[in-house]
Amino acid sequence: MAAPASAPTPAAPRLLKALIVSSVGVAVSHLVLSDTLYLSLAAQASAALGAGPGYSSQQAFTSALVNTFLLMPLVLWIGMRIAGERKVGPMVLVGTAGWVVAVGNGIDAIDDRPGAILPLGSLALVVGATALASLMRRTRT
Question: 41 in helix, strand or coil?
């Protein structure tokens, strides 16, 4: 006997959960991005001072992008599952795509300055669009 399907969460509580989870996702992803970009700057500085071969700035830059692009969908999916939500695929897709676009458009602003923050407008847009995407659900036919 199959377990009965649980009733979907009403829109307002789901949206609130999504706002919190997407805010955490953006914050954590930004922290990982800025910390690994700082490693890239340190590698550039040590190479300029004549340090031997090691962890290059290109490797650090690439790992910064890969880590943040992998982290965002994981945080969104795990966060919403912990919050008791199901069917979070559209939210994860929109949030990840939004994060990739925000980083792609703002990477120059934070690449050369330690502690710099991506433009707040783009971060707010990612959080808002991701939270709104949580309301998209596949209907059963």
Answer: helix
